[in-house]
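Structure request: TPR-like protein, Canariomyces notabilis.
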Amino acid sequence: MATLKAALEDSTYPGQRRFVIYGLGGSGKTELAIKYAEEYQRNYWGVFFVDATSRKTASRSYLEIANVGGVEPNEKAAKNWLTTQVLPWLLIIDNADDDEVNIEELLPAGTQGCILITSRNPAHKSHGTVGERYLELQAMEAGEANELILKAAEEPCPWPETVIKSASAICHALGFLPLALVHAGKSILLGLCSWAGYLKFYERQVERIRRRRRESGSGRSRSEENSGSIAVFSSYEILYQSLEASQRESFQDAVELLNVFSYLHFQNIRLDILILATTNPLREASVREREAQEAENLQLNVPHPRKTWRHWMRELAARMLGYLDTPPPLPAALRNPDGLSGSVLEGEVHVRLSEALKVLLSRSHIMKQDRLEDRYSMQPLVHKWVRERPDMSTSQQALWCQVAANTLARSILLPPLGDTEDERRTRRELLPHINHVRTCRELIFHRMEENRASRRNKLWPVLNRGFSRHDANELARFSRIYSECGLFHDALELQSKVRSFVNAMLGEDHPLSIKITLVVAGTLWELSRAAEATELQQRAHRICVESLGQDNPISLKVADLLGSALCWKGRWSQSLALHQRTVEGMNTVYGAQHETTLKAVSNLARVYLRYMEWETAAELHHQAWEGMKKQLGETHLDTLICLEDLAMARMRMGEQYLAESHKMMQFVLEQRTKVLGKEQPYTLLAICNLGRVKSAMGQHAEAAKIMSEAVIIAERNLGEDHFGVLAGKTHYAQVLVHLKRFKEAEEILHAVADKPQYRKATDQDGEHPDRIIALWYLIGCLERQGKFAEALETCEGLVNSLQEIGGNGLGPKHKLALMLQREIEKLKGKIDGEVETEEAYVAVPGEI
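Returned structure:
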């Protein structure tokens, strides 16, 4: 400990302070790193942990760090956030054993911070930079080992000579490895064996483990076969079997929880998550009943088409499958056989889980991760051993892996439930557990497939595992975590499987099928795959109108979403017609002040904004904002969207509205930073829009500063071809024009106006509105520099582009078309010398 302290607190070293701990498995590397972090936590602003077992686990650990920092959930953003922290922080990179893991790639750049690396690989010691640079943990000295095992067994002093002699023999047999010694001491403390009899217990376990491995014929890695690991596993097995042998409820619960924990990530196992797995289904059932009643009431306001025989038969088949389904397996402590409800159930489950966790803690099967909160962890070597014990068959592994997955899935609420920031924050912590259980399941299925292949030529048939209703339910819940963590590719993969299953079971026209189709479309939007997303939304809308009628509540919601998509793509006439019809229908079905109607009003206002009808847009946005304030509160994320839209509409209405718009955008930014974090995309959007207002007020330098920082973060987190990044750069370039930084502005505008970037967001015959804006700003930039001929050429090209926007040939009728004609005439006059060139620096296109 003194070696670590001296190295990491060396303030004379100018660079990043790194220290490596290496040694055999079970030698206490992780324990030493954690103990240092606990003892000297006061010296660090924050302590962070990266599981370097593989490159994937390391990246996922950085996602957790990104969530702590309130930055975009990816490894690059997390590392950048660490490097920008002025106060000292400690990063523990644990289990960096695999040669395939490049340590250099895991290190944050720069000179900030202290880093502890633990590894079995001695080659990694080269990464140490301070003090003695590295520390090898070898077997303990005999005296230290004796003291450790005697204290673990809580042997009262003075220690008898016979006990010391037995302790010495045990230490020697266990290779003086700390983890094995602690397990041995706990076995003696719990009365499972005596000091004199422990070695017989231990030797039987060693022989049993080796025999089972020979019988199984399974290959084991070098790390598992070495004598150190055998010593740890054998000493641990004695404790494990004592749990299995007991008939006490708390002991049986402890065994089940331990098996579940082995398929979760070994860190941050939370008691409240386990309790949610029991209480969430009751909460969802209550909401389903309420929604069913609300839907029934809404149907009274609209004509409802009769269901066909096909609909009846599909729903009957789905209900029968539901009745025939066996309940998903869960640990006994999380079941509700007595049908308890509410706080009574929560209280009983809390007591039962707490008793089981106490048993596991007393045997050192788990460790308390946080003194103040109910968070637990497992030693990595033991964590792996539990799920790979010789007595654990592949079918048992599959069962416990599924139990762990069920527990996680039930702790995740489906939308619209679980919408608070606290609930989202809790869910994001589930990501490492979901990734681990899915990885384990893939390995188990692969092993089962190999076993099936070896039996295919035998007499009995082999059943293949299908995709069930429970699988679809689980993947739908897991996909919510991936979406909320910004892992949209992973979310899309799971959602697509769910959609295929639901469509096959219920048909595309079932409300549940439509709902999951819209979820998939939303994820495609997040991935900037706008054309695919809109195609799905159009299909869903067509199916809704045909099967439910256009006034059905589901049809109206789908129409509202489709209208927004078409507006964004530049299909304004179609969007306007859809939104006008939707608002009218929602007023009838929901009422004018319902949250759903107000969102539709706000979406309609956005179409008028595209038509440059500023007053109409502002009036509708104000109506939506006032209503949302009453329904959801002024700080709700949806209310803030309405307020932001209102601010941007009024900004365009004239100088007299700028102060009010500025105040609105400041409020939006403050609230989003507080709730979402400073690097979340909606927060970056608020920064950009605040910058636009500041620029309109003449505060160009301040606007450029905040917008530049936001664009850099957005490009790093989202990618340079993300539509939000392109739009942000466009408006930033316009501010640079006002600052007469023409070269920079022109370079940016040429880049963002490159047409191929927008192809995935437009139809074949369409033009994207954001590109139109970029070209308009480029014309002004060129004109300010006196590049009249180039500006005229761009202007004429923009006239052609405008033909392709708006839908149904509305482009030439747009207000911008008239502005372009005037601009062309003015530029021609300047080229011919008919207009004073001094006007070139004043009469230029403004913001649209």
